[in-house]
Design a protein that fits this description.
By secondary structure, this protein is an alpha+beta fold. 21% of the residues lie in helices and 27% in strands. Strand 25 and strand 26 form a beta hairpin. The radius of gyration is 28 Å and the shape is globular.
């Protein structure tokens, strides 16, 4: 967003296509040129305003424009906010946004204006870049007056800059957007109006826009360099942008103001702490009047900390202070100066620290505009245990705050789309929101990230490449999930061939004994005790049961994918290879006296992770699986139990896989008992799920939101029984509940709805399937066919 009068809600894109929101413009380079600010550093950092006046004879019914920038833009028409972008991608897949601006145009003169910025070396790690630039292309000849070129004007915004993040403010790994500093005395407050007297000059025009499908490729970029942007339409809907309450003032120091407007006398230091009650991702909107030279520092935090830097109960404010990302606004003495950050922030607590100069300063208002991917909740879960409602709501909030134009591991600290996190997020998107568009974006991104030796990057988009080989295996699992939950094989046919290089890379690292040997890169297994940097124990030759089992799982999933496409021989080969790995792990790592798999052939260390995967893959003998899972679960359900030598429990993240193993071993009815860590987070006042058990860096981490998926698929028991969700299996495991109702959207349309009620020892199960869907109901080992429409199964009559 930019500076100035508070913006109106973003316009919707024209109703063009859910999968391709813009027309086909890929048969030739666009007439519009990339433009930049003459004399500015191409790589940033910098903030720039671009503008152009156009004259119209009448108000148009339709006026489509396609817009992109490097790094980002916010577009305005006649002073009103249209939207922002572009959604993140890489240089070979640089996105453009499509807007219909007709409703904001009028007969006569109109002003198009955009703020464009490049954070340079301070850019978020997820932000890729070539050099600062802006591009607008009209959809047709009648709209070509907007095309960027030398007819546009530009000014460098001298009053706004980016500020690197201080370790004193954020004493942990931080990879998201930098802070901002606005000097009101130097800022062009009228830049969006025709009255602006800023230092405007003709923009420098470079290469034509270069759509991905155009074979010629424009050879020159801005200033004569190679054109690195290959344009593709953004296939996602616009991000949500809506005003929300900023929160309640919970502490005031140095001023008597209990609300806004708040006047701070001259030569005064004051502090105002606002608690939103829950975490949010939003643009802060600040309006300041007077107070020339006054400094307003805005700090955003997930939680307050005590004198030792500990978070403790997130609801407590007494004797606690705020540390976090911050922005600074320096007043110029003008009235109604409105500021909002260029990139959104995440916070529960927002603190204004004000230092006035020779004049009193007024904080006229503090507001917020929520932003996130526009998921709409279609699923529901309710039960006789009201505490599960809070778990569901908290998981929904966590999933939403970590979904924007990409999925994000955490909305505060990194904002990176990691495969391990995204697999869980995509599953929640399918079953709770019935929306796979963001998941397809992620699957494409990982496909684009493929390295020359056959692995995906661990996270993407990513300006600092990182390789976690196990995450490449989880990408194969993501495709398998997509195959089960989404109909049609079209996109899978594009992605599956790339999985072969991942599986072949691992084959090259197998030892003669069948286990994986030493491998390069970061061989992450889980964040847990005794896994140094997340790497599981290895023997001298690099042997690891857990890493080998990850590979075995991906081979099985790869086999299903190849069979789905009709590649039977390749599927058979993968299954044979998977079976051989399983036999090797059992031969070298099974401890029969303990009924567990060890982490290495040395039998000196055991973990919940290795045994979870061993149960899921039937490497643990079937008749020993229940006992093995009960043994490892004793550390989750009753911490402090005796161990068998060294033993590592699963993290919040990995308990997603533990839940699958519980299901596989027939222990689903223990699932609700395993939610203790999530209940403890609620007791500590968290409003989203944390990255790890206490102490935790991140209070909002998407990989911990999987209970929402589990409540629908394990407890309510609704899951696909065949690829494309063509049939359904309903196998409930209500545990100690006496009533349960749930709804899950089906990709073919309609909802699967269930209602279970227990009376005495008997259950009544009601299952409603949408038209065209059939399946099976499974209870206590007995199955019943399900037809479309309402179905009733009474356990007392069986």
């Amino acid at each position: 967003m930019g500076i100035g009068v508070l913006a109106i809600a973003a316009l919707a894109r024209p109703a063009l296509s859910a999968d391709k929101p813009g027309p086909d413009l890929s048969d030739a380079p666009w007439p519009a040129k990339w433009i930049s600010c003459p004399g500015a550093c191409p790589g940033g950092p910098g903030v720039y305003h671009f503008r152009k006046r156009i004259s119209l004879g009448a108000s148009p019914a339709r006026f489509i424009v396609h817009v992109s920038a490097d790094n980002r833009f916010v577009l305005f028409v006649n002073g009103a906010r249209v939207g922002d972008g572009p959604a993140r991608g890489d240089l070979s897949h640089w996105r453009y946004e499509t807007f219909d601006i007709a409703s904001l145009l009028r007969p006569g003169d109109n002003l198009l204006a955009a703020t464009v910025w490049n954070c340079g070396t301070m850019a978020p790690v997820a932000q890729m870049s070539h050099q600062t630039g802006f591009l607008m292309q009209g959809d047709s000849a009648s709209e070509s007056a907007v095309n960027t070129g030398a007819s546009w004007e530009v000014e460098e915004e001298k009053g706004q800059r980016f500020v690197g993040v201080s370790f004193a403010d954020l004493p942990n790994y931080y990879a998201a957007a930098p802070g901002e500093r606005v000097d009101g005395a130097a800022y062009d407050w009228d830049w969006r109006s025709s009255d602006s007297k800023g230092a405007w000059k003709p923009a420098e025009a470079g290469s034509a826009g270069d759509p991905a499908g155009y074979p010629g490729k424009a050879p020159f970029g801005i200033g004569g360099g190679v054109n690195e942007w290959v344009l593709v339409p953004d296939e996602l809907p616009p991000m949500e942008y809506s005003e929300i309450p900023v929160g309640s003032i919970v502490r005031v120091e140095g001023t008597g103001a209990a609300g806004f407007p708040a006047t701070i006398p001259a030569h005064t230091k004051a502090s105002i702490l606002i608690d939103r009650g829950t975490l949010t991702t939003a643009y802060p909107d600040l309006v300041v009047s007077g107070g020339k030279g006054a400094v307003v520092r805005i700090t955003y935090a997930e939680a307050l900390v005590d004198a030792k830097g500990k978070k403790g109960n997130r609801n407590e404010t007494a004797n606690r202070s705020i540390l976090g990302l911050n922005d600074t606004f320096v007043a110029d003495g003008g009235a109604g100066r409105a500021w909002t950050s260029l990139w959104w922030r995440e916070w529960r607590y927002l603190q204004l620290d004000i230092r006035s100069g020779d004049e009193a300063v007024s904080i006229d208002s503090v507001k917020a505009h929520f932003t996130a991917y526009p998921f709409r909740e279609r699923a529901a879960f309710d039960s006789s245990d009201p505490s599960l409602r809070r778990i569901w709501e908290t998981g929904t909030r966590t999933a939403r705050l970590n979904a924007h134009e990409t999925y994000m591991d955490c909305a505060y600290w990194e904002q990176l789309q990691y495969i391990g996190d995204t697999r869980i997020q995509a599953l929640i998107s399918y079953v709770e929101f019935g929306d796979d568009r963001l998941a397809r974006q992620a699957l494409d991104a990982y496909d684009w990230s493929m390295t020359s030796d056959g692995l995906t990057q661990s996270r993407y988009p990513d300006s600092l490449p990182q390789i976690i080989p196990t995450f490449s295996l989880l990408w194969v699992g993501m495709l398998h999930d997509y195959m089960l939950y989404r109909p049609g094989a079209g996109r899978l046919a594009e992605w599956i061939p790339r999985t072969r290089s991942v599986l072949d890379w691992y084959a090259r690292h197998q030892r003669p004994d069948g286990l994986l040997g030493l491998m390069p890169w970061w061989n992450y297994g889980d964040w847990t005790a005794d896994f140094e940097r997340g790497i599981p124990p290895l023997d001298e030759g690099g042997g690891s049961a857990l890493l080998s089992l990850y590979y075995m799982a991906a081979l099985r999933e790869g086999a299903d994918l190849e069979a789905y496409l009709g590649n039977a021989s390749m599927a058979d080969d993968y299954r044979t290879r998977a079976e051989a790995i399983g036999k090797s792990v059992r031969r070298h790592c099974w401890a029969d006296d303990r009924g567990l798999l060890s982490d290495t052939p040395a039998h000196s260390h055991y973990s919940e992770q290795t045994n979870t995967m061993g149960v899921l893959l039937d490497v643990v003998p079937k008749d020993r699986q229940e006992a093995a899972m009960r043994a490892v679960l004793s550390h989750t359900l009753a911490p402090g139990q005796p161990t068998w030598g060294e033993f590592s429990p699963a993290s919040l993240y990995f308990r997603f896989y533990v839940a699958r193993a519980m299901d596989h071993a027939g222990l689903d009815d223990l699932y609700l008992e395993s939610l203790g860590p999530w209940r403890r987070m609620l007791e500590l006042g968290l409003t989203t799920w944390a990255e790890t058990d206490e102490p935790t860096r991140s209070d909002d981490h998407a990989w911990s939101a999987h209970p929402n998926y589990d409540l629908l698929t394990l407890v309510a028991g609704i899951r696909p029984a065949s690829p494309g969700f063509r049939t359904v299996l309903v196998a409930p495991h209500p545990g100690a509940l006496t009533a349960l109702s749930a709804t899950m959207p089906h990709p073919a349309g309609g909802d699967i709805a269930v209602r279970y009620v227990k009376t005495g020892e008997a259950w009544r199960f009601e299952v409603s399937l949408p038209p065209g869907l059939t399946g099976t109901f499974l209870w206590n080992g007995q199955s019943t066919a399900l037809a479309e429409g309402p179905n009733v199964v009474d356990s007392a009559r069986r």
